[in-house]
Amino acid sequence: MNNPIGIISMQFARPFRREHLGLFARMKELGFDLVELLVPEPEEGLDASDVRKALDDAGLTIALAARVSLTRSISDGDPAIRLAGSDYLKYCIDLAHAVGAISVGGPLYGAPMVFAGRAPAPVTDAEMKAREQRVIEALSKLSLLANGAGCLLALEPLNRYETDVISTVSQAMRVISAVDHPSLGLLFDTFHANIEERSIPDAIRLAGNKLVYFQGNENHRGFPGTGNMNWPEIMKALRDINYQGPITLEPFRRDDDRIGLPIAQWRPPHEDESQKLIASIDLVRACAHMAEFQR
Amino acid sequence: MNNPIGIISMQFARPFRREHLGLFARMKELGFDLVELLVPEPEEGLDASDVRKALDDAGLTIALAARVSLTRSISDGDPAIRLAGSDYLKYCIDLAHAVGAISVGGPLYGAPMVFAGRAPAPVTDAEMKAREQRVIEALSKLSLLANGAGCLLALEPLNRYETDVISTVSQAMRVISAVDHPSLGLLFDTFHANIEERSIPDAIRLAGNKLVYFQGNENHRGFPGTGNMNWPEIMKALRDINYQGPITLEPFRRDDDRIGLPIAQWRPPHEDESQKLIASIDLVRACAHMAEFQR
């Protein structure tokens, strides 16, 4: 297995502005092949041609992470919010085309929960069914656009606290099957799967050839190898389905040496994490390589 | 290991009213030794002497699960909310005495997050420190009361989405050490630990003789044995620290055969779960027994 290894842009900076483009060379130097860039808001003023040039200079490929909200959400009952959701994803697809990104991934269905200040609350069966239909309808159209733009859409299940739309691979596969377009696939994040799936390897095998993007995160979202994830088993499952896409890391740093930790919030880097990142890449690559011999 | 095996009351009914007291006999019949009762609100009209009689009739012991809120919270900066938090926990301790409960457990520090509609947001260092001091001060007084009432207080870390006060055993141990009273100990829930701890067995060993209550839940909160928890390793860690307290199950049922699952909400039973509960008890007991021979 020789999957490209990626790193989320906010590992280094958030928001990611023009002055951060030099970090691409740093990522490459650490051993990464790909950067997963949080889609910049238009007002953040990141120019697509600047991004593309910086990527070329660094020899890095790119994938995009879409940022949905309660006001741009293709699953919403309000047609204006739904339209804003579609328009936003079109903007992401256009940007993907402009920077040469392989995919636009994330909770594309919208309706974020805890980080948007929305607490879990019961939803009627009728509304659940309606959301599903709205998501299928919007993604059917967007898949055609993505195809034209030469990128994939990667639908990501999130854990029960972050969404009440799609939390498991099984649910995501229902939408992906209904849309049934080669430009729509699955994004698998082990952090979320560790909360929702009965078995991470089984869930990977369920995704099968629909898996187009993989985020390898620890159970506690720290650096791979510092938690309870069974990386050899995970890589064997990826090998089982002949997955050749990116394996991206998002080792959000934590701060729990004191009471009242803000584990759930993104924090800027507070130390040089180079050695931890290099060790993480080494671990993922070693397990991926070893998976070839464990059949 | 011959730990009492418990079941949360809401597995059968919520709210748990007088007409549900007959369920105690059903719990005993299934093989449970203990019921973990959600502390009833005064207006729910559950009489302590009725509870005690039903427990005696069924031959069941009891522990209480406290229900904090944003308006009764010993960590809050508002003295009125803090007082309401202390008063509520005093009510819980009085109830524990009246029904003969061994402990009052839960996120006693208050300030619930996602289920109270509060999204994660940064907290200043000063406020984090102040929260810690308020929790230590309140629990120091409440520990004396608990001692007089013959029950324990069991402090429960919750995952990053449900609290930003105490999410790890390490953090809880700081408060428990500062209070330093034999009536205050730790409540360990494997579901939360699976999201926050680097190693569940290591976290159990860190708690050591301060562990007074244990909730054995799957990674996805379903029935033990249906997820990715390593039950033999967990029971070996409990054996390492000579834990003799309850092992309680809270296998919240889920409903993810469709899109838009409300995984995060409690749902009433929709089928006879007797066989799943019996199998869960058997699994926990078998792993606990086997732990005696794996040294």
Could you name the key traits of this structure?
295 residues, eight-stranded parallel beta barrel, 12% strand, alpha/beta, homodimer
Structural commentary:
2 copies of one chain form a homodimer. With 295 residues, chain A is an alpha/beta fold. Chain A has one domain: Divalent-metal-dependent TIM barrel enzymes (TIM Barrel, Alpha-Beta Barrel), CATH 3.20.20.150. The first copy, chain A, has 9 helices and 8 strands. Chain A has helices at 23-30, 48-58, 79-99, 125-149, 169-179, 190-196, 200-207, 231-240, 274-290; strands at residues 5-8, 34-38, 61-65, 103-106, 152-155, 184-189, 211-215, 247-249. Chain A has an 8-stranded parallel barrel with strand order 1-2-3-4-5-6-7-8, surrounded by 6 helices. In chain A, helix 8 (231-240) links the parallel strand 7 and strand 8 (247-249). Chain A is globular and about 50 Å long. In chain A, 53% of the residues are buried. Chains A and B meet through helix 4, helix 5 and helix 6 of A and helix 4, helix 5 and helix 6 of B. Chains A, B: Residues 24-265 form the Xylose isomerase-like TIM barrel domain. Chains A, B: InterPro entries: Sugar_Epim/Isomerase, Xyl_isomerase-like_sf, Xyl_isomerase-like_TIM-brl. Chains A, B: Keywords: Isomerase.
